[in-house]
Amino acid sequence: MKQLSKGVVQLALWLLLPACSFAQGLVDGFMRGQDKASFALTYSQEAYDTYYAGTTEVRNPNLGTITTQSINLYATYGLAYDIDVIVAAPYIRTESSAGYWQKQEGLQDLSAALRWEAYDWKFDGVTVSWLFSIGYTLPLQKYVIDAPVAIGHGSRNLDGRTLLHIKAGAFFLTGQYGYIRRGAVDLDRVVNYYVPDQVNPNIGTKVNVPDVTDLIIRSGFSTKHFYVDGWVQKQTPYSKGTDIGPAIPYPTNAIGFTRAGANLYIPLIKTFGLTGGYSTTLSGRNIGKATRLSGGFVVGL
Amino acid sequence: MKKYSWFLLTAGLLFWTVGCKEPVIDEPIPTFYAPATTDPEGGNWRPILFQSVADVCVSQPEPVTSDAYKTELIDVQNGAFALNVEQIDAVNYWAAGGVLRWNQIARQLIAKYNVTPGYNDATGQTVPFDPNKPIVGFPAAARILALLSVAQYDALVAAWHAKYLYNRPSLARQGVTPRLPVADLPSYPSEDAAVAEVSCQVLALLFPDETNWLIARAGEHKQSRIWGGANVPSDIKAGDEIAHSIAQRVITYVQNDGIQTLPDVNNAWEELRRSASYDVKWVSLAIPARPPILPQFGTGNMWFSQSDDFRKAPAPPATTSPAFQSALAEVRTIADNRSRDEWRIANLWADGVGTYTPAGHWNLITEDLIRQDRQNELRAARTLALLNRALQDGALASWFTKYQYFVPRPSQLDPTIKAATEIPNYPSYVSEIATMSGTASTVLGYLFPSQAARINEMAAEAAVSQLYGGTQYRFDSVEGIKIGQNIGQAAVNWAKADGAK
C-alpha cells in the first residue's frame, strides 16, 4: 500500500501542472524508498477563452479559445531511503481557435529535482516529515517563446523548496513553499518596445523572466484501494515583471495564479493503476483562466 | 546530516540570490568615444530647411579675456569638484552623444504612443477613441525621426558655423579637464545645448503630453555639459538661441508638409477603397474589423522629390493571374513548413504595434554604425538626417501604393495561412518593411562603405522577413526594395552634394 501511494501521489501532483509553467509542484511529500522507481505517462488537456491581462479578465476575439494538449512523462527513483530523484518532460501542442497565430508543438522542458527527507518524527500513529528539494529546468529545444500561442517561456529555472508532510493513517496533509529563479531568455527581436524606466534603449535581445514564489497546500487520503486529494496552489511573481501589452515580450510578464484541483488514483493490477485529475484557475495575473483535465497510467517498480 | 550539506549549500545559494529583485532588463553600461574628426568646415555644409545658416543669428560672445567669461570659467572649474551622484550620472548619460540620446528618446516615445486608435492591442477589445490622446500611426514614426534629425542637423550646421566664426577656444585648451571625452571644437555656441533645445521643442510639438518631461531632459542635458567641464553657461545660451530659430522653421515645415497623421475617424478610407483598381480588395482581418492605419498618409510631401513617379509602384498581378496564384502558393508553403529560423527572422523585423517601428529599427542599426565610426555630433546628425528623410519618403511611397491598390493580405484569400506575427492592419502591397530596407541600405551603404555588405545582408533579410511570417507576398518585397533603393539613391545624390566629405 505504502509503495503505491508514493508513486501515485507524485504522479497525481504531476498531473495538475499547467503545461505552460512547468517547474512548480514537481515534488510532493511522499518519499519513494531506496532503489524503487515509478513511471507515469499521462495526457492532459487545458483550455481557456478568458485570460488575465495584468489582473483584469479579458476575452480576445482574435485568439478565441486556446487549447493546450500535452503528453507527460514522469519518473522517480529512490537513490537512498531519504533521497529521491525526480525527472519529467512533456510534449505539448497548443493552438488558438480564432485569428491567425500558428499553432505550436514540440518537446518543452526537462525538469529534474532531488528531494531530501531531512527529518521525520513519529508520535501516536502520526508521522511528520520535513523535506527539502532543489530542481532545475532546461528547455529541450529553442521553441517559440514570444507569442500569445506558445508552449513555454524558454527559461532555465532553479527551484528550491521546503515541504512539511503530515500523515495520520490514510489521511495526509502537505504544505510546501518554494522559490523559482528563472533565468534570462533571448528574444527573436531586439528590445523595440517602450520600457518606462529604461536608460539605454540599445540593450539587444536579452530579457529577464520574473522569478516567482510558490505555495501549495494539499490534503487527502491514501489507502490500499484508492488515493484522492484536493489542493490549492498560489504562485506569486517576486520580481516586478510586465503585464500583457502590445509588443511587451511574453516571457517578461509577471505571472501569478491561484489554482485549485483534485486527483484520483485507482490501482488495477499489482503496481499498475489509472489516474485522473481536474483543476481550475480561481484568479490570476497574465495567465489563462484555464480548466484542465488529465488522465493516464502509472507503473511502480 | 553531514553528507547532505551540499544540499543545504545549494539551497542556500539559491535563496541568497532571492535578496535582489531583478529588473525586466539588465542594462549595459554605455561606452564613450572621442569623435574621430572635428569637421571645421561643417558650418558650410548644406542645411535642409534653410538656404544658408548665416541667416541664423548667434550673438557675438564675450571675449575670453573679459571678466564675465573668466567668472564663468572659474565657476565651471569649481563646480566640477562638487558634483553629486545624480549629476555624475547625467554627465555620463549625455556623454554618449546628444544626437544619439535624443534619437533614443524619440524611439522610446514612438513605441509608447504606437497604439491602435480605439482598440486595445493587448486584449483585442474595442475601447472609446480619445481624440486628445496622441497616437503615432505606424508610418508617422518615420516622419517624427526625420523631423527630429533634420532639426538637429540644421541646428548643428548653424552651431558649427558660429563656432568657427567666433573661435572661442574649448575649455580643455584653457586648463579645464573635462569629465568626458570632448571634441576639440571651439566651445561657443554649445552644440549640446543646440541639440537639446531643438530636440526638446520638436518632440514637444509631436508629443505634447510629454512636454514637461522633455523640458526636464533638455535642462539636464545642457547642465550636464557645465557639470562635465565642457561648456560655460554663455555657450549654452548661444546654443539655445540657435535652437529657437531652427525649431520655428521646423514648426512651419510640419504645418505645411501635407501629411495626415491623425486617425481616420470619419472612415474616409472607404471611399479610397471603392475607387481602388485592384480586383479583390483588402478587408481588415482583425476581429472586430478595424479601419486601416493612416490611409491618407501617402499623399504628403516627400523630402527628396515631389514627383508622383517617385512614390509609384507597378500594378500588382491580379488575384486571378498565375503570377499571383504562385505567389500565394509560396506563402502557403512557407507557412505550412515554417522553420524556427524563419519564425525568428519574421519576428526580428516585424516591428509592429507597440514598437518603435522599422524606422526606429534602422535608427538603432545606424546608431551602432555611428559609434563604430566615432562620428562627431554634426556628422551623426547628418547621417541620421539623410537616413530618416529617406525612410520617411520610403514610408510615404509604400503607404501611397498600399492605398492605391488595397491588395489583401495572404490570409484573407487563404485563411489556412497562419502567421508568425500579428497580421498588420493595412493592405499588403508594397511591403513597407522592404521599402524602408531598400532605402536604408542604400543610404547606409553609401555612408558606411566598409559595412555595406553586412548592411545589404540585413536589408535583404528584412525585405523577405514578412514573407516568412506569412503576412506578405514575395512581389511585395521585390517591388518594395526597388522603390526603396530609388529613394535611397536620391538621398545619396543629396549627400554627394551637401559639402560634407
From TrEMBL, chain A:
<feature type="signal peptide">
    <location>
        <begin position="1"/>
        <end position="23"/>
    </location>
</feature>
<keyword id="KW-0732">Signal</keyword>
<protein>
    <recommendedName>
        <fullName>Transporter</fullName>
    </recommendedName>
</protein>
TrEMBL record, chain B:
<protein>
    <submittedName>
        <fullName>Phosphoesterase PA-phosphatase related protein</fullName>
    </submittedName>
</protein>
<dbReference type="GO" id="GO:0004601">
    <property type="term" value="F:peroxidase activity"/>
</dbReference>
<dbReference type="InterPro" id="IPR016119">
    <property type="entry name" value="Br/Cl_peroxidase_C"/>
</dbReference>
<dbReference type="InterPro" id="IPR036938">
    <property type="entry name" value="PAP2/HPO_sf"/>
</dbReference>
<dbReference type="InterPro" id="IPR052559">
    <property type="entry name" value="V-haloperoxidase"/>
</dbReference>
